[in-house]
Amino acid sequence: MTTPGPREKPAVTLLESRFTRNDMPRLRLLVEQYAGREGLPDPRRGEFVVAMDAVAVNAVEEPGDAGTLVLQRSDSHLLCRIQDLGHDCGDLTATDPDPGPGPIGRPAGHGLWLAGRLTDDITIDSGPRGVMVTLAARLPHRA
């Protein structure tokens, strides 16, 4: 999905930003504005922003307290890549893709689960530079 198909052009970067906890309101507003400009309709646009927020909050709560966000548009999807700037968290890709929201009352563990429910696709990659989560929302077909 992130690799262009035979007729699909490479993704175009719309927004690239380093962020901390203090930047979250601005980041939510920017992602909402770009998503609207690119044709993601309500209520999907709001769901995409909530998913982005859930993952970005995870990034600033982990070691490093900062992250980067890259918002891109392919021919058919809006992609949001969020990378924490912390340490290697192991191979998160080997975990159950649908672990559930975690125990009730647990303060963490719901962000990725929620993001997976609110987007069309979520991928998680972990390595020495931190964890990168890519969220994708299908865009309506343009005539």
From TrEMBL:
Domain Histidine kinase/HSP90-like ATPase: 23-135
InterPro entries per record: HATPase_C_sf, HATPase_dom
Statement: the UniProt record of this protein carries the keyword Nucleotide-binding: yes
Name of a matching Pfam family: HATPase_c_2
Keywords: ATP-binding, Nucleotide-binding
Recorded GO MF terms: ATP binding
Protein name, per record: ATP-binding protein
The organism of origin for this protein: Streptomyces alfalfae
